[in-house]
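Task: complex structure prediction.
Instruction: return structure tokens for all chains below.
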Amino acid sequence: MSVVTVPRSVLGTKGWTALMAAVITVLVLAPVLNLLVPAGSAFHLSDYAVALIGKIMCYAICALAMDLIWGYTGILSLGHGLFFALGGYGMGMYLMRQIGRDGSYKSDLPDFMVFLDWKEVPWHWTFSESFIAQMILVVLVPGLLAFIFGFFAFRSRIKGVYFSIITQAMTFAAMLLFFRNETGFGGNNGFTDFKRILDIPIAQPSTRMVLFVLTGMTLIGFYLMARWLVNTKFGRVLQAIRDAENRVMFCGYNPLAYKLAIWTLSAVMCAIAGALYVPQVGIINPSEMSAASGIEIAIWAAVGGRATLIGPIIGAFFVNGAKSWFTQAFPEFWLYFLGLLFILVTLFLPDGIVGGVKRLFNKKAEVKA
Amino acid sequence: MNKQDALTRCRHLLARWLGVGLAALVMGLSLGGHSAHALTAEEAHALAAGDNDARIAALQKLVLKGDPALPSYLEALAADTVKVAGNRAYIVYGDEVKDAATGQVTALPDGAEDVVNNNRMSSEIEAALGVGKLMSKDIAVRTEGIDALNKAADESKLGVIDKALAAETDSKLQGLLKTVRAKAMLVAQDPTMRIEATKALAEDATPEARALLMERLQDPEESNGSVKAALQYALDKVNRKLTWGEHAGVVFTGISLGSILLLAALGLAITYGLMGVINMAHGELMMIGAYATFAVQNVFRTYFPGAFDWYIVLAVPASFLASALVGAILERSVFRFLYGRPLETLLASWGVSLVLMQAVRTVFGAQNVQVENPSWMSGGFDILSNLTLPYNRLVIIAFAALVLIGMTLLIAKTRLGLFVRSVTQNRPMASCMGVNTARVDTMAFALGAGIAGLAGCALSQIGNVGPDLGQNYIVDSFMVVVLGGVGQIAGTVYAALGLGLINKFLEGWAGAVLAKIMVLVIVVIFIQKRPQGLFAMKGRSAEA
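Output:
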């Protein structure tokens, strides 16, 4: 596909400058504009914008994770919605326990469990009261699931569309399971009505800003990590697997370990995105696991440009920005737009926005020369 | 009855309460609405007051007497509009009060009390009303009567039941009456009668009979050892008979589900299996077929209401053509640019499915639409007491078989089929031999889409038709094709029927949702073991 170049460091001079700008924006500019600049001012960043951008940054992490597995390794997963939701549910249950006795039933148990007449927390939520334990589980459970699933799938050399379809089936099965009331995931409604995180009220602007900054830093951190990763030998092998898996095998590599490692890493990134998403959006329910949300993650990566790391982030911002604008301005046309985006991007922009822009610049350069 | 006497009393009372002028008016009204009464004041009172046993005894006596005035009084009792005072009963119609026995308009004495019917009393009253209905000419009314009687079946009703049974001509209602009779006998005082009832129920062998037997067996009132043994014996016998029906029922619903999966997957077996196009919009092509059926149905309803039962004959080709046309347009405009890029096809076709769904929402509305079965498709064969095969399911199984045969012949015997096979096997070589491969692609895709339309037409006969109809089938149909082995039509058939049967058998002991999850897990594990499906193509390709 693309020519592999070997940069000396992770980023060039321009890259580092852009990175610093991003870090300053997230760390200093956004909090100042939101918290210190008065609400009437033209420079004020509204709470709505903070929530929206925070949410989209979580999506961007997912898109980045998707890019690592799809753009760089050539494996299209339609099951990333599941890992995202697992991370979200892990965080969600912790937040449910933080509600304490402030729920409608004034019980130690979350409301939906009281409603089902349960006397104690089911076994899989044993650690849900401890923040640290729960955050470890947020990483561990999706990671382990991805590892086991990936091990069996890659070992029997399931590839391409087969893999996509069985990841979708797995997600579909999990969604049915989470919809059930008796499995302890809150059924249809999922988890919502959160009040506190680490005993701090979750709705106040400063808490939201801390979550926002945390999400932004995670995104930048993951971006740097991915940037570093794809240029290591490990990253090269991944791209070789994408382009000609059989040749990689004939060269004496076993693709299993490489695929499994990037697959698990990608799943964990998604889970962390989910855990950051839930306290900012305030709800998690099984619809995050639907086939549609799994495929949407892929379209963010495709729109932005696969196999470029900045592309998926741009794609996530572009598609979700358009979504929040469309669903307010022309709610009926959002699905037309999204559908056409799927079609047009695959037909005319195989390298996404970033690829298109690059092509444009290259043409100009050729004309000049 | 004595008209003069009634008039005098009426005038006397009303004069005291309302004045003479008004009384004359009401008197006129009450004279007009007179009917022959034969209920005595004592009987009416006995029915409304006293303890329940006495009231029921009085009721039984009156029912056997067959009093013509009884039903309207019973209805008033059932509607809680009866009051008692002294030794008379009164029916209150809003402001108007009538004496229950004479039917005369009268005034309600001071201290009149409401008649309270507990559950037992109300079901007795219902049953007595039901007895009146048993002799009706209308089958529906008779069925209602039997239902009412069934709720309060006990020994005292046996006389009435026997009478009705002797007069009954409809075989289905005879069966119902027999069950009611056995139910009444099952609680009789005499143990031999109870044993006789168990025999009748064992003969009957319906799910209701089983429930009755189990209930009586667990009833602490039943202490007679030999009756208990007879109950157990009858229960075992019924269970044995019913098990057959239940197993056959599971097999039938499994085959039925399998035939639907097969219809949904057959089109995909062409577009995905033969052509390699991952068409996520396949479900939406089914939806288009279902909406085409809906449109044809509406045309028939408006212009040819007389031929409505046969709209389906036109709906089948219409749904095929509608979906095939959409499929051909999609192939020309989208998919042909994406051959050989399966993952991109997946995304683009997902986009297509979103657009199609939203388009249908814009045209037909987001709500589900009603597609009515032709009348000859409703109802079913009663094979066993607990096994009915609905006609619409049978028609769909036959339809799926026909589509399968038609498609197989088309692929194996026709020129188009030959071209399709040659292009999928070796595109450059086929092209060299003068096959217009681009046209063959379009035709083949349109064929697959058209078969999806036929599946939609079939689905419209058994379920809801809405914009997201296809979404429910897309994962399933891909499972079927992948499980059966890509490019293997025979494999698709086995996989569809197998998945249908497994699903229904698991549903029997795990419930619908868990069964579905288990099936998905089984398929995923199976694909891990045999990535090429049940019927793998043999070959030495490294890219297998």
